[in-house]
Amino acid sequence: MSSRGLRTRERILAAAEQDLIAHDGIDIVRVASAAGISVGGLYHHFAAKDDLLAAVVTAFHARHNEQVIYAEIPGPWRERERERIRRSVRFHYADPLAPLLVTRAVTDAQIARIDAQELARAARASAANLAAAQRNGELPATLDCDLAGAMLMGGSRQVIARALTLKRRPAASRLADELWAMCAAIVDA
Amino acid sequence: MSSRGLRTRERILAAAEQDLIAHDGIDIVRVASAAGISVGGLYHHFAAKDDLLAAVVTAFHARHNEQVIYAEIPGPWRERERERIRRSVRFHYADPLAPLLVTRAVTDAQIARIDAQELARAARASAANLAAAQRNGELPATLDCDLAGAMLMGGSRQVIARALTLKRRPAASRLADELWAMCAAIVDA
DNA sequence: ACCTGAACACCGTTCAAGT
DNA sequence: ACCTGAACACCGTTCAAGT
């Protein structure tokens, strides 16, 4: 793809993200206009509205994964995961899409679908992470990693959603500490 | 409203629920046809597609509340909540709408929106429930009820979603036991 | 390849007319 | 009040034509 094409594509993505934040959903005509392109031109870059939405939401999750999930953090399991939670809270506090996506107050079903898939994927990844720590002897052998992974990810998600909707958000470090305490309690039960 | 009108309304609701299960979303023409009524006739009972969807999804939550949330269960807090979790798992295993709603694999944004609101509401209700037990001295005074409520409801939701998507679901009683163990660990931390 | 803008298609909604 | 079915409206998508 040419550099001109790439730049247009980026303009469309940025316009779509802004439109999503402003209206809890996107309108193709509005996005095209904001991006300075015709509707037909937009469709040259994205085959359908759902594809454009998917690109915007996937970019959000890619940012999160890069800063939190794939981050190389040294130390024993508990230290690593505690630090990961800190980073995840900071990420959600800072990213402009987080409040909208995390509360699911969205007018497009495609966003909700991707989000649900992403949460299920995170739960499975967490389960695998727990199982690895379990094999190392860092977690009790009795832990059901599959269920605990779902509990940790589903719970953390809702805790962050709750914090993001409060008028006065708790400090990121305090929220991370409380969240970690609950996560630690689950895996040590 | 006349008994004839009420019966028609019920037929529409039943057709919509079936359509939702069969197609992960509803089509007004399809629902009207399945309910044996014209499109215009359907609109006599529901002002918009979103209202019909809301009625179907709200009925699901009303069933859950009746069997689980508002149920009068005797005994101390831990006994009560453990029993509540058992009933919630049984409810989700039995209700035909549960797999679809709980996994959010839905083609209508309205469903996702209602579901997100309902989960946030459940988290606040759980927080109030925890606070009451805390005042009774049944839970540690250090517990942050607001965050714990979000953790419990968000986590439980994802655990049940995970179980419902497995080809071989764990036995309801075992799932309830494991879920309760994790919930108890959170509030006793 | 990249883009335009008018025509098209799909599906939710309305409405004049009937019982 | 309850219902019909054709017309309407809205918005995502296509496409012939341009650079």
Radius of gyration of chain A: 19 Å
CATH superfamily of the largest domain in chain A: Tetracycline Repressor, domain 2
- Binned strand content of chain A: under 5%
Which fold name fills CATH's third level, the topology of the largest domain in chain A?
A: Tetracycline Repressor, domain 2
- Report the structural category of chain A: mainly alpha
CATH architecture of the largest domain in chain A: Orthogonal Bundle
- Greatest interface and its participating residue counts: A-B, 44 and 44 residues
Q: How many H/I helical runs of chain A? A: 9
- Tell me the distance between the termini of chain A: 53 Å
Order of helices and strands of chain A: HHHHHHHHH
Query: How many β strands of chain A by DSSP?
Result: 0
The coarse overall form of chain A would be elongated
Low-confidence blocks of residues of chain A: none
> What's the pLDDT, averaged over the residues of chain A?
97
Oligomer: homodimer
Could you characterize the architecture of this molecule?
The structure is a homodimer of 189-residue chains. Chain A is mainly alpha-helical. The first copy, chain A, has two domains: 1-47, Homeodomain-like (Arc Repressor Mutant, subunit A, Orthogonal Bundle); 48-188, Tetracycline Repressor, domain 2. Chain A is built from nine helices and no strands. Chain A has helices at residues 3-23, 28-34, 39-45, 49-69, 77-94, 98-103, 109-135, 145-165, 172-188. In chain A, helix 4 (49-69) packs parallel to helix 7 (109-135), helix 5 (77-94) crosses helix 9 (172-188) and helix 7 (109-135) crosses helix 8. The N and C termini of chain A lie far apart (53 Å). The mean pLDDT of chain A is 97. At the A-B interface, helix 7, helix 8 and helix 9 of A face helix 7, helix 8 and helix 9 of B. Chain A binds a DNA duplex (19 and 19 nucleotides) through helix 1 and helix 3.
